[in-house]
Amino acid sequence: MQPINFVFDIDDTIVVHFDPKDWEENTKEIVELYGEKFLNKHTVWAVKYPHFVFPGIPTLWKWLYSQGHRIAMFSSAVKERNEELANNMVKLIFQEKAEEVRPQIKVFSRTDCFDTSRLKNYRDFQPVFFGNYKKVLAGVVVPPEELPWSFLIDDDRSYMALHEEYNLIKVVFYTSLTPLSSDSFRNFTYCFKAFYLAGLFQAIFEMIENDHITAVEAAKTIQVDNANMPFDHYFSYPTTEDYAFFEKGEKILKNIDPEAIMPPKIHQMINNHEYEK
After folding, report:
1. Is it the case that residue 277 has pLDDT exceeding 60?
2. Cα–Cα distance, 30 to 49 (Å, whole number)
3. Could you tell me the end-to-end alpha-carbon distance of the chain, in angstroms, rounded to an integer?
4. What's the confidence (pLDDT) of residue 274?
5. Residue 269 confidence (pLDDT)
6. By C-alpha distance, which of 199, 194, 174 is closest to 184?
7. What's the chain look like in SS3?
8. Which ranges of 141-230 does DSSP label H, i.e. alpha helix?
9. Model's pTM, two decimal places?
10. What is the mean pLDDT of residues 86-115?
11. CB–CB of 179/265 below 8 Å?
12. Confidence at residue 70, expressed as pLDDT on a 0 to 100 scale
């Protein structure tokens, strides 16, 4: 398979950060579920703020990297924060291989975004989802010829660029870490999105091999075409709450790292079909 460019948004996609004074309160359920050691192993600092790396993300990155795929980061935050976070995340995830891996992970920041608000004809640059700032992949992150093999993984669909509508891999946005007290399957999808992504990526890999199509064509089929609804500004990505991807992804990641697991409550919700509510 041709290597795929996986371009990850940062905030609410691979990490969530809180003010240091609120850190203990906002991460207490993670500690209760996984333990203090787990929290420490999933915490990185940047510009004096602690960032929690979502469960499974480290293993997801290792899995993608081991298959020869490329990883990049693209956040509309300032370069200083993004670069420091990338340095510390790579150290946390790849440890003794960090010096080898870090130069291969490109980081893009606010100044790399395409600001449509500065243009008189800004509406001519809007795809189905409006947004002033766009994370353009072609010619910025990847050469144009690699666009069919490139994804932007983001919780905010407004960063989708024109002519790159099907390059977006959508993940769920939420605001808190509540893996124990949450009573909504959607809330779980925020915290445990790494498992969803692993399952979705594997489905994409399989479709590429079986149907002999590009990565973006496979993602379009799974995320958009199979939804059987108009792809317009009302469109929502139903796959983000597809329990089958979570279960498939957990099997993949747990095989690499036994700690890469979802809590029993999410399996209970799946078994009780509460994801359908």
Report:
1. no
2. 18
3. 38
4. 67
5. 78
6. 174
7. CCCCEEEECCECCCEEECCHHHHHHHCHHHHHHHCHHHHHHCEEEECCEEEEECCCHHHHHHHHHHCCCEEEEECCCCHHHHHHHHHHHHHHHHHHHHHHHHHHCEEECHHHCEEHHHCCCHHHHCCCCCCCEECCCECCCECHHHHHHEEEEECCHHHCCCCCHHHEEECCCCCCCCCCCCCCHHHHHHHCHHHHHHHHHHHHHHHHHHHCCCHHHHHHHHHCHHHCCCCCCCCCCHHHHCHHHHHHHHHHHHHHCCCCCCCHHHHHHHHCCHHHC
8. 185-191, 193-211, 215-223
9. 0.96
10. 97
11. yes
12. 98
Q: Is 242 helix (H, G, I), strand (E, B) or coil?
A: coil
Token digits of residue 267: 């399996």
pLDDT tens for each residue of 207-261: 999 999 999 999 999 999 999 999 999 999 999 989 999 999 999 999 999 989 9
pLDDT, mean over the chain: 94
